[in-house]
């Protein structure tokens, strides 16, 4: 930036510029931040953004902020931060560079600001071009009645030959075939008794001693017999509770008898 | 200006027929509802012949993947019926067949043709309608001949789809209990104290001879 | 049997190309959303060449009332833009986008993947949460990869729905992209003095190479 340009710009700000600044202030809510204001101010220079006088721009902006203060208009912090930065930039541009000092030169900072403004202007321009494109649902259309993809939920049941055969074996050999369980040789569980009795109870139309429900091979050994009897008795009670059977005992220590009971849903 | 043109003396010529056809195409494509010819005419420039353009379009879509079809008084573009399967996305959900279902199926396979009462007798519990329906729906069982006994109950048999699924040539190939045991498919350790007594030969018999024989005997 | 057929030696021939073209036609017509070639292939019978069928279909619809258009990796049928005036009735009121939203969208489209801080640097104001949320809700932008810089900030990129909406085949076709790029206006040029501090060299790298190459890759 040349000396005379600087002088020419730094002193007096034209009336029209002051008016422009006031117009900006009145409308400050309409701006999208300080960069937007700067871009608007830059446009008043009516030159290519690459050739704008950043110093001049900084001054215009500072006038705008001063004016706002005079009019007691509260500016958002962003605007004030930008003002401070531009004041710093202005001093950097006006003072000869200090070789001892590190950091960017005023020219670097000014160039970056010019770049930012140009970039913002470019983004605004392409945004407008983008919105001017043909748009889906406005200028061109998708299928009105998409037939879509029908989602068919198919349930596939898995069963293999082994399942089938084991199921059959389970039915046909209920007394002997058992799935692998922990063997407790001399314990007959209530579940086992229940499983055994369930299919049988349907045929017990007459009162039958529950001891006749003891599984084969469990009636000789006393220990096994005790376990099986207890399990069968418990299972009999369970069947009664479920409403599948009736149980009776004529007197203390008399045989306990069981009979099928027809249920409504049977 | 066009608005002022009278019907009898249009100021501008209507678009060419090919152009009108394009218009009808776009209208039918984008519309959420089937469109009447009157509606098309209303949307097209003055002087257009929507009906003629529609006829051209219909012919153009003849044999294509989509067709121009009439829906009541209106027209729409729809997928050709033979391609409907492309628009289905199947999600397969695997489920384990319930114990009741697999047992019922097994009994039918080993004893077919078998009545519901017989299945219940063998399983010792009643067979729910849902179980049978499911197996029928899966096309693993179907109705067989009616049994020539009082009440003429229906019987169930397994289907070719069943054989296919389980990799069997015929239901006769289903192994008997002995074979299952020999193959180690069953826990052949008899419950304690039962040793040799059980695994009764007759049972095997029943199921091999009575069972299979009467089932597959063609003579019923 | 078919299950055993290997890919290289199908037991059955794929359908004829004309038939495959019909299939692609049906699939594209049926969907309002763009469909990938892979998706078409998945729905078509084994051995079909969806890409070739698509090319035929595309040529067939050249100049018609509807067109086969590319949207990113996918394909869709859309009405020809010159017929839009006939179809205004279908328009659902477009949400009026704020200036902030439009600019933010444009910045994301042209600078993607881009962080919130970068958007703010370009616009010179903070980006309100509502603006980003709105664009995400419209499915025009989504989160991209995190930037490999301190703080690992999230980035934003545009979506296929964005491309579809603006009739862009790829983000490379954004209007004026080449010019902006040539003018260096898409460079991430950190403010002087800050460069050494918190705009490390790799950031530029990431932005340009990973990001843009990704999207604009071969077209440069």
Automatic annotation (TrEMBL), chain A:
InterPro entries noted in UniProt: ScpA
Pfam families for the chain: SMC_ScpA (PF02616)
Superkingdom field: Bacteria
Protein name in the entry: Segregation and condensation protein A
The organism's taxonomic lineage, starting at the top: Bacteria, Pseudomonadati, Pseudomonadota, Alphaproteobacteria, Rhodobacterales
Automatic annotation (TrEMBL), chains B, C:
Ribosomal protein is among the record's keywords: no
UniProt entry keywords in alphabetical sequence: Cell cycle, Cell division, Chromosome partition, Cytoplasm
Pfam families noted in UniProt: SMC_ScpB (PF04079)
Chain residue ranges for the region called Disordered: 185-220
Keyword DNA-binding attached: no
Protein name (Swiss-Prot/TrEMBL): Segregation and condensation protein B
Natural source organism: Primorskyibacter flagellatus
Gene3D superfamilies named in the record: Winged helix-like DNA-binding domain superfamily/Winged helix DNA-binding domain
Biased composition (Acidic residues): 198-220
Coiled-coil portions: none
Domain of life: Bacteria
Signal sequence residues: none
Listed InterPro entries: ScpB_csome_segregation, WH-like_DNA-bd_sf, WH_DNA-bd_sf
Any one biological process term the GO annotation gives: chromosome separation
């Amino acid at each position: 930036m040349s000396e005379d340009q600087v002088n020419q710009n730094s002193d007096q700000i034209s009336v029209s510029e002051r008016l422009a600044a006031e117009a900006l202030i009145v409308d400050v809510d309409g701006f999208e931040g300080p960069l937007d204001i700067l871009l608007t101010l830059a446009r008043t220079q009516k030159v290519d953004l690459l050739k704008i006088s950043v110093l001049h721009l900084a001054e215009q902006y500072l006038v705008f902020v001063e004016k706002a203060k005079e009019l007691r208009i509260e500016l958002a912090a962003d605007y004030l931060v930008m003002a401070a930065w531009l004041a710093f930039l202005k001093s950097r541009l006006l003072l000869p560079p200090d070789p001892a000092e590190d950091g960017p030169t005023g020219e670097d900072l000014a160039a970056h600001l010019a770049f930012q403004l140009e970039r913002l202007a470019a983004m605004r321009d392409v945004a407008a071009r983008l919105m001017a494109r043909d748009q889906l649902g406005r200028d061109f259309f998708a299928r009105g009645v998409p037939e879509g993809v029908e989602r068919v939920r198919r349930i596939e049941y898995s069963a293999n030959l082994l399942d089938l055969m084991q199921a059959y074996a389970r039915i046909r050999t209920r007394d002997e075939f058992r799935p692998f369980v922990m063997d407790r040789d001399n314990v007959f569980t209530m579940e086992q008794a229940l499983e055994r009795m369930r299919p049988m109870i349907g045929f017990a139309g007459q009162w039958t001693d529950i001891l006749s429900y003891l599984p084969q091979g469990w009636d000789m050994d006393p220990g096994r017999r005790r376990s099986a009897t207890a399990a069968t008795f418990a299972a009999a009670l369970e069947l009664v509770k479920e409403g599948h059977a009736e149980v009776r005992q004529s007197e203390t220590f008399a045989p306990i008898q069981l009979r099928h009971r027809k249920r409504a849903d049977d | 200006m066009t608005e002022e043109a009278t019907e009898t003396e249009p100021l501008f010529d209507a678009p060419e027929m090919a152009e009108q056809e394009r218009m009808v195409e776009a209208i039918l494509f984008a519309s959420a509802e089937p469109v009447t010819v009157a509606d098309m005419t209303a949307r097209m420039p003055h002087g257009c012949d929507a009906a003629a353009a529609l006829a051209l379009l219909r012919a153009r879509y003849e044999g294509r993947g989509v067709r121009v079809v009439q829906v009541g008084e209106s027209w729409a573009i729809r997928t050709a019926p033979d391609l409907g399967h492309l628009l289905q996305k199947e999600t397969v959900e695997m489920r384990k067949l319930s114990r009741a279902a697999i047992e019922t199926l097994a009994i039918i396979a080993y004893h077919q043709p078998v009545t519901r009462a017989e299945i219940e007798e063998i399983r010792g519990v009643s067979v729910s309608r849902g179980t049978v329906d499911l197996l029928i729906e899966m096309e693993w069982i179907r109705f067989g001949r009616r049994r020539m006994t009082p009440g003429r109950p229906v019987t169930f048999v397994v289907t070719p789809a069943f054989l296919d699924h389980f990799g069997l040539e015929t239901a006769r190939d289903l192994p008997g209990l002995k074979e299952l045991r020999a193959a180690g498919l069953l826990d052949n350790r008899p419950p304690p104290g039962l040793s040799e007594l059980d695994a009764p030969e007759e049972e095997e018999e029943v199921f091999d001879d009575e069972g299979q024989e009467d089932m597959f005997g063609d003579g019923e």
